[in-house]
Each structure stands twice: as structure tokens, then as C-alpha cells.
Design a protein that fits this description.
Blueprint lengths: L12 E2 L2 H9 L8 E6 L7 H5 L4 E6 L3 H10 L6 E2 L8 H5 L4 E6 L5 H10 L6 E7 H8 L9 H7 L2 E9 L4 E2 L6 E8 L9 H13 L5 H6 L9 H4 L8 H18 L1
Parallel strand pairs: 2-3, 2-5, 3-4, 5-6
Antiparallel strand pairs: 1-8, 6-9, 7-9
Length: about 260
């Protein structure tokens, strides 16, 4: 099927072959077979490059029935294609305890949710390679001190080395979106445990950035009213804190929480 023959609501198909090959090539070659899961393959623009690789065991999850039928016709030997919602799948049903990478041209309206789900299985996912709306991609890769630095930056960079690889222009898609896209690669770091309550860590990061214009003294107080912040943190704004500083802040609040329980 020619993807130009029909527009799908909310879908933008990659039609630039060189961009597709560049994205697929950003996944490193593995010395032993690695499970790779693609989210939303659509008409298989990137899929076809992954299927050629002998170093990966490839899976794809697609919600659009028409796209699935097209892929089955185009790649009749591909038998790991599932009509499933990535956000609802149980990874253990497909991979048990084995590692798997996550790749794809992620649907922009659920891209943050995709990352949050990946974080739930971070110890099993060594690499996330995806295309996002450019602003979101920049936000995930942003360093402390920048305007883009936020919740996703901290939570992803706590566990992954994030690299912004390249920008994709609207003309690489059909129909062309109104925004540019960005491709990032997230490689799992050596951080096994943060050394603090990880749920509390997430709550602290969210509390800080939900009122990012305020100092931590005021933003943290909204969630942890009586927590005593040291001078090191009280007058700072959230974008000034590195991942390590957020961990330190979480430990400080954790000690307060433990005293009250």
C-alpha cells in the first residue's frame, strides 16, 4: 500500500528512506542476539531495516489493524507482530526476565507515557531509541541549568545516558507534521539503585518542577509542608539541581518522612 493513498487520523508515516536507515543504524550491533521491541511500526519504514539484522530478535506492537495487515503481507515471515497496546502489555509474557531494547517513531501524544513505562522496567531495558517531537526530545536530553531541563530530564538521566542524535524535518513524513522531530538514544547507565526511596525521588522531582518558577523552599512545601531544607537547597530552583542533587534532596526529605512515621 502506498502510504500516500490514505491519511490516517493522528498518524505521520516516515517516507524518507535515508532517515529511516539512519535511525535503525543508531542501534548498535550486538555480539549476542538481543530482543528488540518496536512501538507502532506503521507501514514498516524502520521495521524493514531491523528485520534484516541477524543480531536481533525483533518484535513489533501495533494498534492499527490496517497497518498490521500490510506488514503481514509485506513481511510474511515476520511472526512476532502483535496487535497490542504497548502501554498495557506485560513484558514478562514476551521476554520473561531477558533484556530487550525499545525502538520506534513514538506516537507524540503518548511519548512521555512510553518513557514512564520503560522506566518501570529499566533494569531490563538497556537501550531506548526513539523519535519524539523535537521539543520533547530536547527536554529529555537537556542538562541542568537549561530551560528545557525538567521532570523527564531528571527521571531519564537518573538511569540512562541520553544523547540527542539528530533532527528530522517535517518533509520526511506524510502527511507532514507541523513540528520538527528529534531522535534520541538512551543507554542504561551503571546506576543499579539510587540509594534513596525511588518512589519518593519521583514525587520530589515532580513536586519541584510542578512549580518550577518557585524556589525549592516553596515548591517542596506544597507537598511536604514541614520538611526542613538546608540552605544548600532552600533558595535554589529545580532546574539548578543535577540528578545527584535531587537524590541528595530526596534523602533529606526521606529522613523527615521517617521521623514522622
Amino acid at each position: 500500500m502506498n502510504v500516500k493513498a490514505k491519511k490516517h487520523l493522528g498518524q505521520h508515516f516516515l517516507i524518507n528512506t535515508s532517515v529511516c536507515e539512519k535511525i535503525a543504524g543508531a542501534l548498535p550491533v550486538f555480539t549476542t542476539p538481543m530482543n528488540v521491541l518496536e512501538i507502532g511500526p506503521g507501514k514498516g519504514a524502520i521495521t524493514c531495516f531491523f528485520l534484516k539484522r541477524p543480531d536481533i530478535d525483533f518484535y513489533a506492537f501495533e494498534l492499527d489493524v490496517e497497518s498490521i495487515q500490510y506488514l503481514k503481507t509485506a513481511h510474511p515471515d515476520f511472526n512476532r507482530l502483535y496487535n497490542q497496546d504497548f502501554l498495557k502489555i506485560n513484558f514478562s509474557e514476551y521476554f520473561k526476565d531477558a533484556p530487550f531494547c525499545v525502538v520506534g517513531n513514538f506516537p507524540y501524544n503518548i511519548s512521555s507515557q512510553i518513557l514512564f513505562k520503560c522506566l518501570e522496567a529499566k533494569h531490563q531495558i538497556p537501550i531506548i531509541l526513539g523519535m519524539f517531537q523535537k521539543e520533547v526530545a530536547r527536554r529529555i536530553a537537556a542538562p541542568p541549568g537549561s530551560k528545557e531541563y525538567g521532570i523527564l530530564s531528571v527521571l531519564m538521566q537518573a538511569y540512562y545516558e541520553v544523547s540527542y542524535l539528530f533532527t528530522v524535518e517535517p518533509g520526511a513524513f506524510y502527511p507532514a507534521p507541523k513540528v520538527k522531530s528529534g531522535v534520541i538514544r538512551c543507554v542504561r547507565n551503571n546506576q543499579v539503585e539510587l540509594g534513596c526511596d525511588e518512589r519518593l525521588f519521583v514525587n520530589v522531582v515532580k513536586a519541584a518542577f510542578n512549580q518550577r518558577r518557585k524556589t525549592l523552599r516553596n515548591s517542596i512545601r506544597a507537598v511536604f509542608p514541614n520538611a526542613l531544607l538546608t540552605d544548600e537547597f532552600a533558595s535554589m530552583r529545580p532546574e539548578q539541581l543535577s540528578v545527584a542533587s535531587f537524590i541528595k534532596l530526596t534523602k533529606l526529605i526521606e529522613s523527615y518522612v521517617n521521623e514522622k512515621t
